[in-house]
Amino acid sequence: MAASTRVTDHGGGVWSIQVPIPDNPLGHTLVYVVDTDRGPVLIDAGWDDPASWDTLTEGLTACGTSVGELYGVLVTHHHPDHHGLSGRAREASGAWVAMHAADLAIVRRTRETRPGRWFTYMTAKLTAAGAPEEHVAPLRTSEPRTLPGLSPALPDREIVPGELLDLPGRRLRAIWTPGHTPGHVCLHLEESHPAQLPGHGRLFSGDHLLPEISPHIGLYEDPDDATVTDPLGDYLDSLERVGRLAAAEILPAHQYAFTHALSRVGELLTHHEQRLAGLLSLLSDPLTLWQLAERTEWNRPWADIPHGSRNIAVSEVEAHLRRLVKLGRAEAVPGTDPVTYVAV
Ligand SMILES: [Zn+2]
Ligand SMILES: [Zn+2]
């Protein structure tokens, strides 16, 4: 595909480049280019892959600039389809790379942790969730180097929520939106919409608010920290906060730009309400996390869900279960191993 067909001019000194994610159903990351008085700033950088890099650099040329001109890279969150190429972009330009402190801590930990540590942790966790031996066994013998993003670039700046960012000549403010990751940020361009659409500016929403995908709610997993977090509670709060901004247009990191922010927020809130209600009705009998995941309705039958996606499904269920426990609607059955949960 020619570079120009991957570039969209959103007006008012904002472009997007569709940077491909190899072998991934998401297809691409929308990397945004925001013009400033000191040179272009990227919002996310895309997956670290040679073809993705070529698309990014050719896309910048099609925007009338070049990778060497970059002034900064703002990373919405640490995932490799967003942060992957920021180190290479920095090397090519001397740009700064900025990320929220909570995701920066994850990057630092990923760089310092032996990959084997992660597999040991996941094996113990899945066993405690009631996963069958045939599911856990492959993790014990996995080759750790198959993990993506093992040595992500260390950002050199922090994105501080609520503050205007260092984009000379622009008004871009960071909004902390934890849930998908603990340090996810949306970036609010507080300038009137170039086509005068009604509402307050434009919002770069990362993975927090997407037009047709409900983002995965992570668990902020940290092998060295046993704190029980409530990522779904964080996400629902973040959604409401973003809804209140009443942005004229949402510029997400996947799929396409859209204007109906409030109704999309409403759909996502309803989706999670329904999932919580569904789990609660399943929990009239005590069930392990694994049993809950098996009985939950997914986009295909449980038997057809591949190994890695089952782990994601279990963590998705755990995020919802933690919410129910926090709300006092479910509890662990004392003395069970693997632990079972039941509605209160
Ligand atoms: Zn993500
Ligand atoms: Zn993403």
Automatic annotation (TrEMBL):
<feature type="domain" description="Metallo-beta-lactamase">
    <location>
        <begin position="28"/>
        <end position="254"/>
    </location>
</feature>
<dbReference type="InterPro" id="IPR001279">
    <property type="entry name" value="Metallo-B-lactamas"/>
</dbReference>
<feature type="region of interest" description="Disordered">
    <location>
        <begin position="132"/>
        <end position="154"/>
    </location>
</feature>
<dbReference type="InterPro" id="IPR050662">
    <property type="entry name" value="Sec-metab_biosynth-thioest"/>
</dbReference>
<dbReference type="Pfam" id="PF00753">
    <property type="entry name" value="Lactamase_B"/>
</dbReference>
<protein>
    <submittedName>
        <fullName>MBL fold metallo-hydrolase</fullName>
    </submittedName>
</protein>
<dbReference type="InterPro" id="IPR036866">
    <property type="entry name" value="RibonucZ/Hydroxyglut_hydro"/>
</dbReference>
